[in-house]
Design goal:
This protein is an alpha+beta fold. The protein has two domains: 2-45; 53-137, no CATH class. Helices cover 40% and strands 16% of the residues.
């Protein structure tokens, strides 16, 4: 086996372009394999960083007329679901929007989110300092009328 290794090293030394092509191909293969495994590990193999991630469910609406398989529920629908549901132990909502911030100078637009106070305990998120938002302290956005 030692003779075979010496022979391979001599052949590689004699043709540097072939050697370069081989080294680059092996390096590209190792790099691609590492990148793909890192993504698969982060997305599929590692559990979500929440308490009991196997018990989390995402609920969305569907619109067949507009051919939308999923889209965000309205505030009224969320409040109705929260009031009527008996299946889930907790229900929370998150929304994403753009917000304008004004003050001194030109206004700026930032992307951000709106969360219900019930989302933090649902995900097992506790503040490092202070306390989380309280449901009773939030002004009602809309009331569901029957």
């Amino acid at each position: 086996m030692l003779n075979d290794l010496r022979y391979a090293a001599r052949m590689l030394w004699k043709s540097p372009l072939v050697t370069l092509a081989i080294v680059l191909t092996v390096a590209l293969g190792i790099g691609a394999n590492t990148a793909i495994f890192s993504v698969v590990n982060a997305v599929m193999l590692r559990p979500l960083p929440y308490e009991q991630p196997d018990r989390l469910v995402w609920v969305a609406e569907r619109n067949d007329k507009l051919n939308l398989p999923t889209f965000a529920a309205s505030v009224l629908n969320y409040l109705s679901w929260k009031e009527q549901q008996k299946t889930f132990s907790q229900l929370g909502a998150a929304g994403f929007a753009n917000f304008n911030v004004t003050g001194q100078g030109e206004p700026e637009q930032f992307g951000g989110g709106t969360l219900t106070p019930s989302l933090f305990p649902l995900l097992g998120i506790r503040p490092v300092l202070g306390r989380s938002f309280l449901e009773a302290r939030i002004a009602p956005v809309a009331r569901v009328s029957r």
